[in-house]
Amino acid sequence: RSLKLNRNNVDVRNLTPKSAMTIRCVAQQLGMLPSLRELNLGFSKISGNLHQILSELQSPLESLELPSCDLLPADLAFL
Fold it and tell me: Principal place where this protein is found (predicted)?
């Protein structure tokens, strides 16, 4: 029900083919957790690409923590 991913070093602000593939893999893996209700993405470099990471979720989260994450208007619009 709860997952905490700290210190994610994948920088989705400057996607390379390898990092884009990693993001898709993470999104697919999150989508395979149907009971996931709480997600903490601390220290992630997800600016402008939050939708890519959360796009595969099967159900809405009850709690999303983004400490030390720089969000852009696109991220807020997605939320």
Answer: cytoplasm
